[in-house]
Design brief:
Blueprint: E1 8-19, E2 22-30, E3 34-43, E4 51-54, E5 57-58, E6 61-62, H1 69-90, H2 94-102
Antiparallel strand pairs: 1-2, 2-3, 3-4, 5-6
């Protein structure tokens, strides 16, 4: 179990047109020492908060993933909060934001 606090900063979000639940990509720093990029943001009605993060892989092998549930939850909480903040800035009308988040283009 991870007992140390983790600092997640410099969160950058690159929104994409929604497709099959994918709504964007995130990058961020952990403890100002590790850059993590290409983390996919998906809508997920079955999860608390309605989103999930998918970490990058290369040739079927994880490039990065949290080892502890608490770390994964902390990352997800901050990344999704930043994503929603950005969406509110881009879509000032909440109805437009609701439509974007609920779209599922094929």
């Amino acid at each position: 179990m991870c007992k140390e606090a983790i600092d997640i900063s410099d969160i950058q979000i690159a929104p994409v047109p929604p497709q099959n639940g994918l709504v964007g990509f995130a990058s961020f720093l952990i403890d100002n020492r590790f850059y993590i990029g290409n983390v996919a943001i998906f809508t997920s009605p079955s999860t608390l908060g309605g989103f999930r993060l998918v970490y990058p892989t290369k040739m079927g092998t994880s490039c990065f993933r949290p080892l502890y549930r608490q770390v994964g939850e902390a990352i997800q909480k901050k990344v999704i909060a930043r994503y929603l903040e950005l969406m509110k800035e881009l879509f000032e009308d909440e109805e437009d934001l609701d439509v974007r988040l609920s779209r599922n283009d094929k």
